[in-house]
Amino acid sequence: MFAVIKTGGLQYSVKPGDVIKINKVDLAPDATFEISDVLMCSNDKDVKIGNPIVNGASVKLQVIRQMRNDKVIIFKKHRRHNYRRKKGHRQPMTLVKVIDISNK
Q: Given a cut of 80, is residue 35 above it in pLDDT?
């Protein structure tokens, strides 16, 4: 059984037991929440494709920890004008574990 979910403007293909990084969700560690934006859901027998989401389907997730992603370097330069700017950015992320996929 697997599902394709949408969260934070991104799509993820998940199975029960998977651990994924998603954009930050303001919840404490060990908290659980559900995502109802399921774009596709499949079990051993059939596949349900949403238009745009599957009605009645949801994915239950558990927060493992809050973290920050790897640093991305932003560098701007105008040649021959003595203009250089260097910045770094670390996106806040949430590490979550897929507990259950329900398809009603």
A: yes
